[in-house]
Design a protein that fits this description.
By secondary structure, this protein is mainly alpha-helical. The protein has helices at residues 28-64, 67-86, 92-107, and strands at 7-8, 18-19.
């Protein structure tokens, strides 16, 4: 009925096994929408993760004390934030807030 690829162990839940790829849809259309939703969720999660990584790169450059590197990474990060906001993965105000805070960090560098 199930094979080993249908289960996964999650970190933080050592004695629990979670089933994957289980769609509880009754109609063809509902199954298709569930598959599409799962695919879009994975895509958006990857983009959101890349956004978070870009923000962390700016903060790391600021902590390292290299202002030119921080400015270069900041420019790339603002582009990523704008793209993510335009795709409606995050709210436009959240993108603006992140850009503003990162700009203040870079500007405050000696």
């Amino acid at each position: 009925m199930y094979n080993s690829n249908d289960f996964v162990m999650i970190a933080g839940f050592p004695n629990s096994i979670f089933r994957l790829n289980l769609i509880m849809a009754n109609t063809v259309q509902a199954r298709k929408r569930a598959n599409q939703a799962a695919k879009l969720n994975a895509h958006n999660s990857a983009i959101r993760s890349a956004m978070r990584t870009a923000i962390k790169k700016v903060r790391a450059a600021v902590e390292a004390g290299d202002k030119q590197a921080a400015q270069a990474v900041y420019i790339q990060t603002t582009s990523i934030l704008d793209k993510v906001a335009n795709k409606k993965i995050i709210h436009v105000n959240k993108a603006s807030r992140n850009k503003s805070r990162l700009a203040a960090l870079v500007k405050s560098m000696p």
